[in-house]
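Exercise 7.
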Amino acid sequence: MTSESARLRWKTWICAAVVILSNVTGNYFLKRGMPDNLDTPLQYITVLFRPMVSLGVLLLILWLASRMALLSWADLTYVLPVTSIGYVLVAIAGRIWLHEQISNRRWVGIALIMAGVALVGGGTAPQTTKPADAPQPDAVEAGR
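Solution. The predicted structure, written as tokens, is:
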């Protein structure tokens, strides 16, 4: 493994961790700060100024920005399965901190997600396609 590929692997894992954690915590704070019922569109706007909801929104902005960065250098088919571990963590957070009831059927779905993450995360390198602006071998040979 070259130093460049090792750096890319670390960069990818760190950014993936930021994507996952900001998604889980952002959704948690958003749910925690939301009232039980909102009747008018104006109430949805005013609830944005509650501290927990505001924190959730800021964390979800961080999630989106870090996800965009991750997608800029890693393949979509790698990023989506690896970051889907966030679904598992959201379910666990909901169970522990929000006392939500999770059916056996949902736990089976969560186990399947974890199996998919293990398969994809332990597989190929994060970047398997060439960037669109990289010269193609046929184009280089045709120019000679």
